[in-house]
User: Which sequence fits this backbone?
């Protein structure tokens, strides 16, 4: 085999050896982009729910969301969204309101707030891991 052929084989082999690294880099970049998109979507949803609550109830967004959760003027679905937002914000001031609605019974979405969401929100307000906590809300 000539020197030219060997160098050609070596460069092809080097390219084959680099392919997994490029593939992993591309996968990581796509995962990072997906994560960032989800984080900004969550942030946007929290802002929307908070803005709606602040329009109806005076105070800062946590106080307004707490009042929204307690209000019988809103359906369970909207109040569950406010519970979720409180959990995403993670402010410990919301704990008394969340604990008030915690029944410890299975969810009955027709009559009560979602118990699973309330438990998650309580955990969030107590400092549980939140993958989007680094975003300003």
Assistant:
């Amino acid at each position: 085999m000539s020197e030219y052929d060997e160098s050609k084989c070596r460069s092809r082999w080097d390219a084959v050896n680099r392919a997994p690294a490029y593939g992993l880099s591309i996968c990581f970049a796509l995962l990072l982009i997906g994560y960032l998109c989800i984080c900004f979507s969550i942030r946007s949803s929290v802002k929307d729910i908070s803005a709606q609550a602040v329009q109806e109830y005076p105070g800062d967004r946590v106080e307004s969301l707490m009042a929204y959760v307690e209000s019988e003027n809103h359906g369970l679905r909207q109040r569950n969204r406010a519970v979720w937002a409180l959990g995403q914000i993670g402010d410990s001031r919301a704990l008394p309101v969340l604990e008030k609605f915690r029944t410890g019974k299975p969810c009955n979405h027709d009559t009560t707030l979602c118990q699973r969401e309330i438990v998650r929100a309580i955990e969030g307000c107590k400092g549980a891991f939140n993958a989007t906590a680094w975003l300003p809300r």
About this structure: The chain has one domain: 3-125. The helical segments are 3-56, 61-70, 76-89, 95-101, 115-125.
